[in-house]
Every structure is written in C-alpha cells, then in structure tokens.
C-alpha cells in the first residue's frame, strides 16, 4: 500500500469520525469502562479478535482515541490508570506521593496482567507501562499494541491543560518530557503499529489509527495477531 493510499484511507475514516463527533460533542466525557453513550458508527471492514493496547507518553491522546476506537469497533474501553486508582482506592497522584513510583509500577504491572486476561477490548495504558519488560511481553503475546507518537510541543500543549501529572511536578515540564521521549520512544517503537497523534480534532488521529490497523490486520504476518 502506497503512502498516498494510506493517507486516503486515513482521510476517509477521518470524515466518518468527524460526523460522529458532530453528533456527540460530549464523547470524551464517556465512562472509563464501556462505550461512550449516544455514538453510533458504520461497521468497519475488518474485525479484531485481540485486545488493542494503546501506548505512548502522557498527552498523546490514548484515552481520547481509545474511547472512539472502542466505539467504532464495538468493544469495551478500559483506562488502565482508572483501574489502578480503583484497585488502590487513591488517585495516581496520591499513590506516587504516598508510596513512590516503584510501588506504583508494581501495582500497575499486576493490574495490567489482570486486564490482559479480559475478553477483547481497547485498553489505554499509562505512559510508563510499556517500559516494563514483563508487561511488554504480556502485551506482545496477548494484544495488538499501537503507539500514539506525538512531538514535544503537542505534548506540552496537552499536558498543560491538567495539573495532575506526578512526573511533571518536580521541574520544567519541557525538560522532563524531552527526557522521557529520549528514554521511552525507542521502547515504544517496539509496538506493532505506530501512528502519529496530530494537532487537531481527535477524529483526524483516529482515522489514521483505523487505516493503520486495517493495514496491519491485512498483512500475512498479522494472521496470528488477529486470532
């Protein structure tokens, strides 16, 4: 498939999803588990029988795109951070402050192992989850991983809208994010699919995700991944 064809597919999907957003302006306010209310879509031309795991840095759009992707595919959506908070009875920020990052990562590993035993779903993970070798191995064995890659300026613009990012509390967010990109991007690149998260309506990125997922599932090497 040529780059021109991939772009056409992404644009075609993006046009469909733009109409979905117009019908459901509150899509991002949907629950962490399940489908966003009030959104309907045409059935895609492919099916997925393995969990889809979204990875990437904070601000990449994993939850926003994940909800939309789950709705289009007719799958449940789960936000791993929300599941961790429910299991711990505390927010991510509180867990970091009370127990430290190492304890949080251990809990994250256990929760993700449990979630990956669930039936097929769309799962958005925290930025550090894919960095854990054990978790990465489970994702590789049980799921299709998609890295939402974003540039530094876009990440900064997005994370600046919220003040609950523990890793950004102790320093210049630009410096911290740049360091995290250097550390994590080579590992994120091991994901099955890489899609650039673009500046604009989430449906634009979603269109590219759908096109990339369709191409991946159509490839001969993806036969095992789809079953």
**Are there runs of 5+ residues with pLDDT below 50, and where?**
1-9, 11-41
Say what the CATH topology is: Rossmann fold
- The H/E string reads HEHEHHHEHEHHEH
Number of domains: 1
Shape: globular
Largest beta-sheet details: 5 strands, parallel
CATH class, please?
Alpha Beta
Helix content: 40-55%
Helical run tally: 9
Tags for this entry?
9 helices; single chain; Rossmann fold
Report on the structure:
The chain is α/β, with parallel strands linked by helices and 227 residues long. The chain has a single domain (3-222), classed as Rossmann fold, CATH 3.40.50.300. It is built from nine helices and five strands; from the N terminus they run H-E-H-E-H-H-H-E-H-E-H-H-E-H. A five-stranded parallel sheet has the order 2-3-1-4-5. Helix 1 (3-23) crosses helix 9, helix 2 (62-73) packs across helix 9 and helix 4 (92-99) crosses helix 5. The protein is globular and about 45 Å long. The relative contact order is 0.19.
